[in-house]
Amino acid sequence: MPNSPHIAMHQLSPEALGEVAAYFQVLAEPVRLQILNRLRQGESKVSDLAQACQCSVANTSRHLSQLHKYGLIERENRGTSAYYRIADPMIEQLCGLVCGSIGQRLQRKSKEYAAFMGAASD
Q: % helix / strand / coil in the chain, to the nearest 5?
């Protein structure tokens, strides 16, 4: 896979920033994150993804459509079934960065809370 060019946000036009916002908006849905997490294990059919996410097939299909529109997943038809897989391996790195950042923030808050409660009991 070729390296993606690093583009700083300050270099982007308002239109380009709109595209970036739309990309993140696609990821701002918990079911879509569940789908991506499931697809990390390998390709899957809509019905299997629906079952794993505890959603209807129709609802899962709508989410898959959005993920496909923004190039996060690929679709391959085989016979009467459609199989989905992650198309952009960078999504795992992106989600890892976000999860790590959230974990660090919660860890800091936990320490701040513990320090506050320790000071409050004095």
A: 65, 10, 25
User: What would the pLDDT profile of 83-92 be if each residue is shown by its tens digit?
Assistant: 999 998 889 8
Other beta carbons within 10 angstroms of residue 70's beta carbon come to 18
- Is the distance from CB of 34 to CB of 48 less than 8 angstroms? no
Q: Tokens 């583009």 sit at which residue?
A: 7
- Full-model pTM: 0.79
Phi, psi (rounded to 5 degrees) for 86: -70, 130
- Residues sharing a CB contact under 8 Å with residue 71, sequence separation 6 or more, in sequence order: 87, 88
93-to-34, 50, 82, 96, 113 alpha-carbon distances in Å: 16, 24, 26, 5, 30
